[in-house]
Specification:
Layout: H1 5-20, E1 25-31, E2 34-43, E3 62-65, H2 71-80, H3 101-113, E4 121-122, E5 127-128, H4 131-138, E6 140-143, H5 147-155, E7 156-157, E8 165-166, E9 178-179, E10 188-189, E11 222-229, E12 232-236, E13 253-256, E14 264-265, E15 269-272, H6 274-295
Parallel strand pairs: 9-10, 11-14
Antiparallel strand pairs: 1-2, 2-3, 3-15, 4-5, 6-15, 7-8, 11-12, 12-13
Helix pairs in contact: 1-6
Length: about 300
């Protein structure tokens, strides 16, 4: 089959949009007079296989926060909706720690609807809406990532040499990240090891990126996920007060959902309505075509 130059651009652009999602983006989430700006990366490659741990398979495309939720973002929502919970540890661009799982869920509800009691989480029963259903219901839904969503964004690499697969660490490596106080160098993370950081780094300055482009999924603060056993909720990724073993894909932990610890924060994930994803992907394809035509 022969393709013209234009046809090849359309074909490749469409394949990229389908497999990897469209480009990373920042949402300006506004309710009332409060706007929260939040950067997301797209996690495509829907239908990927699970890791040998049994985790990481996700059957749909979604987005996840490039960074942990910051104390500044938490404070802004708290001012707009005091019912979200208590003040966070740390401040400014440091991660919003000291947040219980239930408070994180209310924060996500506010992002979704402007109401801490309405969204993906029913605060009367704590039932959780299916994430794809939530995207279709609200247009764009925000939520605490499931264990599989969190795990895939941290460890899965669709472009891994030898075929798509998983790394041991959330910096695209099977070797432990270099421990640092702060910075964005590849292959680094903020955790104790031979250092002794006493406070977490800013969420946009806390280590190298995962293959999908997230920062700080290893180290800085532990992060809640939606997995639960009885009153316990999952936490992943390690924090400033642990060694490299806590950053491993094979390490899993949990805390009582009401726990408020200086070393536990969270990251927000999102599923836009399917039509919104397609529209954005088509805009990206059209932009490629327009650029190609201008160069002729």
């Amino acid at each position: 089959m022969q393709f013209s130059s234009l046809s090849r651009i359309i074909f490749v652009a469409a394949m990229v949009a389908n497999a990897a999602g469209v480009a990373a983006q920042a949402d300006a989430i506004t309710h009332g007079g409060t706007t929260i700006n939040m950067a997301f990366v797209n996690v495509g490659n829907a239908g990927n296989a699970a890791d040998n741990t049994g985790y990481g398979a996700v059957g749909y495309n979604y987005r996840i926060g490039k960074y942990e939720v910051s104390a500044g973002q938490w404070a802004a929502v708290l001012a707009a909706a005091p019912g979200v919970g208590n003040a966070a540890y740390w401040g400014g661009s440091q991660p919003a720690a000291g947040i219980s799982w239930y408070e994180a869920a209310k924060f996500c509800n506010w992002l979704t609807t402007g109401d801490v009691n309405k969204g993906v989480y029913d605060t009367a029963t704590w039932a959780i809406m299916d994430h794809q259903t939530a995207g279709a219901t609200y247009g764009t839904a925000y939520f605490i990532p499931t264990l599989n969503e969190w795990y895939k964004a941290a460890y899965y690499d669709p472009a891994k040499a030898g075929g798509a697969g998983y790394w041991d660490y959330p910096t695209g490596s099977d070797s432990a990240p270099t421990a640092v106080y702060e910075g964005t160098s590849p292959g680094t993370a903020v955790y104790v090891n031979w250092l002794a950081p006493t406070t977490p780094a800013n969420v946009d300055n806390c280590g190298g990126l995962s293959p999908y482009g997230t920062m700080g999924q290893g180290g800085n603060v532990w992060e809640w996920n939606e997995s639960s056993v009885s009153v316990y909720r999952g936490v992943r990724g390690g924090g400033i007060n642990g060694d490299f073993n806590f950053l491993l894909a094979s390490f899993r932990d949990s805390r009582i959902g009401t726990t408020e610890s200086y070393s536990i924060g969270f990251r927000v994930a999102s599923v836009p309505e399917p039509g919104n994803m397609l529209t954005t992907a088509m805009i990206a394809v059209i932009g490629l075509i327009y650029g190609w035509r201008k160069r002729k």
